[in-house]
């Protein structure tokens, strides 16, 4: 987990560095570090709000007139981070490989949240994130202290019902507001990690199946199809039909 979090954080910094090298000068009326961070967060599908009351939403990548290829930088960064973690933590279990890869995605995601707060790309979301941090920290400290003083009784167990309801409402509406802004970013971050983790897991499963062969993965794949060709055919036909239906036959 620690390796994944660290690798994900470094991947975010590497992507930011790549954007900083490509970014033109004096695009926004802001310090260079802040404007380049806005651009990189924009490449992660997070928009910037401007104006007296933050009523204008713009895409920093579009404003800076950066090439469309910059949207691939976050995907490449997360993919390499996930692959690095899966490569260094060897396990043949698909679930464990996906978990290891998602640890890198989590590190990337948490670093991006910190970057959102520091750069103030969405002031309203920054406020919500700060409130969440304060409430979360307060609950953790309160639970720890009260648990110690009351010999294990949870903090929420001695809190008033009104407090619990208030916190629940804040978490609900705050979470919905945050998700509405970062939903595309979640896909950019975690879709590659799941794909990489599953790929490593399947590859190592095939290698394990065909370990007695000179070409273990090919042999393992052959054994898999020999044992499960009917199920594979049915699944392939279903997805093929779904693809045709959704794309209109294109």
Automatic annotation (TrEMBL):
The UniProt keyword set, sorted, is: Membrane, Transmembrane, Transmembrane helix
Which residue spans traverse the membrane? 69-89, 101-119, 125-143, 155-179, 185-203, 232-249
Name recorded for this polypeptide: Uncharacterized protein
């Amino acid at each position: 987990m620690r390796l994944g979090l660290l690798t994900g954080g470094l991947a975010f910094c590497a992507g930011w560095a790549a954007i900083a090298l490509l970014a033109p000068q004096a695009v926004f009326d802001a310090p260079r570090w802040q404007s380049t961070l806005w651009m990189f967060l924009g490449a992660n599908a997070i928009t910037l709000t401007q104006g007296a009351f933050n009523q204008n939403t713009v895409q920093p990548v579009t404003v800076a007139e950066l090439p469309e290829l910059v949207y691939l930088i976050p995907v490449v960064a997360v993919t390499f981070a996930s692959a690095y973690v899966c490569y260094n933590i060897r396990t043949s279990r698909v679930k464990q490989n996906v978990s290891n890869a998602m640890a890198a995605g989590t590190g990337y995601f948490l670093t991006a949240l910190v970057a959102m707060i520091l750069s103030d790309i969405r002031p309203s979301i920054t406020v919500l994130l700060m409130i969440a941090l304060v409430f979360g920290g307060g609950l953790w400290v309160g639970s720890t202290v009260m648990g110690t003083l009351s010999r294990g009784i949870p903090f929420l167990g001695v809190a008033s019902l009104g407090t619990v309801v208030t916190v629940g409402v804040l978490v609900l509406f705050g979470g919905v507001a945050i998700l509405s802004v970062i939903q595309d970013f979640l896909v950019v971050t975690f879709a590659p990690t799941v794909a990489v983790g599953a790929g490593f897991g399947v590859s190592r499963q095939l290698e394990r199946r065909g370990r007695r062969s000179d070409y273990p993965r090919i042999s393992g794949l052959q054994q898999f199809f020999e044992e499960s060709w009917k199920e594979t055919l049915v699944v392939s036909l279903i997805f093929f039909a779904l693809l045709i239906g959704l794309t209109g036959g294109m």
